[in-house]
Amino acid sequence: MNRGLIRQHLASREGAVIRTSDGRQYAVPHPEFVLIGRHNVVVEHPNGYLDIIDPLHIVSIRPGSRRKMRKREVKSPE
C-alpha cells in the first residue's frame, strides 16, 4: 500500500486495525498513534512500545472500535 492511501484510510477513522502480509494485526486506537514516514509506518502502543512496518507489507486497514482496540494486541500466526 502506498503512503497516501495509508494516510487516507487512517485519517478518516477513529480506530483501525492494520493487517500485514504475514497475517499480523496492529491495533491503531487513533490516527495520532501512527507515524507515516518515507519508508516505514510506525505504530505506537499505549504502553510506549513501537512497531515498525514496511508499507509494502500492509495489505488492509479495517475499522475497529475503541473498545476492541484496548483488548486487541499484535497477533502472530501460529
What does this protein structure show overall?
The chain has 78 residues and is an alpha+beta fold. It has one domain (3-71): SH3 type barrels (Roll), CATH 2.30.30. The chain is 19% helix and 33% strand. The protein is built from two helices and six strands. It has helices at residues 3-11, 66-71; strands at residues 16-20, 25-28, 34-36, 41-44, 50-53, 58-63. A three-stranded antiparallel beta sheet has the order 2-1-6, covered by helices on one side. Strands 3-4-5 form a three-stranded antiparallel beta sheet, with helices on one face. The longest helix has 9 residues, at 3-11. It starts with a helix and ends in a 7-residue tail after the last helix. The model has no long low-confidence stretch (mean pLDDT 84).
List the helices and strands and how they pair.
Elements: H1 3-11, E1 16-20, E2 25-28, E3 34-36, E4 41-44, E5 50-53, E6 58-63, H2 66-71
Antiparallel strand pairs: 1-2, 1-6, 3-4, 4-5
Structure, briefly:
The chain is an alpha+beta fold. It contains two helices and six strands.
Which bin fits the share of residues in helices?
A: 10-25%
Main sheet specs: 3 strands, antiparallel
Per CATH, the class reads Mainly Beta
Taken together, the total number of domains comes to 1
Properties at a glance:
single chain; three-stranded antiparallel β-sheet; 2 helices; 78 residues; alpha+beta; SH3 type barrels; 19% helix
